[in-house]
């Protein structure tokens, strides 16, 4: 666990409270890495990376990057992702039942390459007053993210992948990315493939987002579109995200914001972090606990009585967490034969622990 900056520590506290109430069999190895709180160093970064290499899975908050240049172009957040080769960022933008927005029933996925592109940290002053920033696009990484997008679409039963680019202007860089996507698309004849220029894509997302299914794009475009799409369903506080390498999985908020203005005020929306934590449990094959928590969060949203300020309400973070925990309780049932627990979707008695039990749920003498 890496709480990060801003409201990150408060959101992680919310996760720990809900995990405790749901008896989730997960132990966190907690580390603190922050450039703005002077808690960042190569030694701390190495400790975090060693922990992640051991566990293979992490839950992280936003590690805020100061704008001031202090001799190092690559932020600790960027260096962390590069050292773990977290090349694929996935943000599932889905409408929450019970919260009305301009576009309802949205369900689209944004896949972003996040180890090169404009975020390569290669900048220099060629002559006084002239800064050159290098955007790096490689065939290998473009093919890798394209294949990831099509594999994701295949695994999740999605029907279309849209490659987003600016190849009309950046003919070589984005042109290479686009060609790689087109080449990979030929290997997946059952998945529809189309392309769209980034500026038009932003307009189309606002006007008619239903035309999209899976979108794949280079680094900077993905960063912008993640935030735009999050705004369509309620903002950064409700959209979970995750990043993958060949070995590691990191779960985080889909739109990375520190929400510095909310620090210490108990008003941050924990929805995105709780849903990310639920996705982490699903990745760990803890289906029962994952569904228990995600269902609890969605029930609170759908009920409409407990809303944080970003969703137009006046409830506190603590109010939201308490309401989620209260919504876990109806599932508990009677422990004799585990009542309704045994019939919950995704619950496997031989594998998953029941809240209140130690270890897997074992059958009783009754059939």
TrEMBL record:
One of its GO terms (molecular function) is NAD binding. GO terms for biological process: isocitrate metabolic process; tricarboxylic acid cycle. It is found in: Mitochondrion. Keywords: Mitochondrion, Transit peptide, Tricarboxylic acid cycle. Its main location: mitochondrion. GO terms for cellular component: mitochondrion. Residues 1-324 form the Isopropylmalate dehydrogenase-like domain. Gene3D superfamilies: Isopropylmalate Dehydrogenase. Belongs to the isocitrate and isopropylmalate dehydrogenases family. Plays a structural role to facilitate the assembly and ensure the full activity of the enzyme catalyzing the decarboxylation of isocitrate (ICT) into alpha-ketoglutarate. The heterodimer composed of the alpha (IDH3A) and beta (IDH3B) subunits and the heterodimer composed of the alpha (IDH3A) and gamma (IDH3G) subunits, have considerable basal activity but the full activity of the heterotetramer (containing two subunits of IDH3A, one of IDH3B and one of IDH3G) requires the assembly and cooperative function of both heterodimers. Heterooligomer of subunits alpha (IDH3A), beta (IDH3B), and gamma (IDH3G) in the apparent ratio of 2:1:1. The heterodimer containing one IDH3A and one IDH3B subunit and the heterodimer containing one IDH3A and one IDH3G subunit assemble into a heterotetramer (which contains two subunits of IDH3A, one of IDH3B and one of IDH3G) and further into the heterooctamer. This is Isocitrate dehydrogenase [NAD] subunit, mitochondrial. It comes from Ramphastos sulfuratus.
């Amino acid at each position: 666990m890496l709480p990060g900056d801003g409201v990150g520590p408060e959101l992680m506290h919310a996760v720990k409270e809900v995990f405790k109430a749901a008896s989730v069999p997960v132990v966190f190895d907690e580390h603190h890495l922050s450039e703005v709180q002077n808690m960042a160093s190569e030694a701390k970064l190495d400790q975090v990376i060693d922990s992640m290499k051991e566990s293979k899975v992490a839950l992280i908050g936003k590690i805020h990057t100061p704008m001031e240049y202090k001799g190092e172009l690559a932020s600790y957040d960027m260096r962390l992702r590069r050292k773990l080769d977290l090349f694929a960022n996935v943000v599932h933008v889905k409408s929450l039942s019970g919260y009305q927005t301009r576009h309802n029933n949205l369900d689209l996925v944004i896949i972003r390459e996040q180890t090169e592109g404009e975020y390569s940290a290669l900048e220099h002053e060629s002559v006084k007053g002239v800064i050159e920033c290098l955007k790096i696009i490689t065939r290998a990484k473009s093919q890798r993210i394209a294949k990831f997008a099509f594999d994701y679409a295949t695994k999740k039963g999605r029907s279309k992948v849209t490659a987003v680019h600016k190849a009309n202007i950046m003919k070589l860089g984005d042109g290479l990315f686009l060609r790689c996507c087109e080449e990979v698309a030929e290997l997946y004849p059952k998945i529809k493939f189309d392309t769209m220029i980034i500026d038009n894509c932003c307009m189309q997302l606002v006007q008619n987002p239903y035309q999209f299914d899976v979108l794949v794009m280079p680094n900077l475009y993905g960063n912008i579109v993640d935030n735009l799409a999050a705004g369509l369903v309620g903002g950064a506080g409700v959209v979970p995200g995750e990043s993958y390498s060949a070995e590691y999985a990191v779960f985080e908020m889909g739109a990375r914001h520190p929400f510095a203005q909310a620090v210490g005020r108990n008003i941050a929306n924990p929805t995105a972090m709780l849903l990310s934590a639920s996705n982490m449990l699903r990745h760990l094959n803890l289906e029962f606990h994952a569904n228990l928590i995600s269902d609890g969060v969605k029930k609170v949203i759908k009920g409409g009585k407990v809303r944080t300020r970003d969703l137009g309400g006046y409830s506190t973070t603590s109010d939201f967490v308490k309401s989620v925990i209260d919504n876990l309780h109806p599932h508990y049932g009677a422990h004799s034969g585990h009542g309704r627990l045994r019939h919950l979707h995704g619950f496997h008695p031989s594998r998953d622990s029941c809240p209140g039990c130690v270890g897997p749920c074992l059958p009783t003498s009754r059939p």
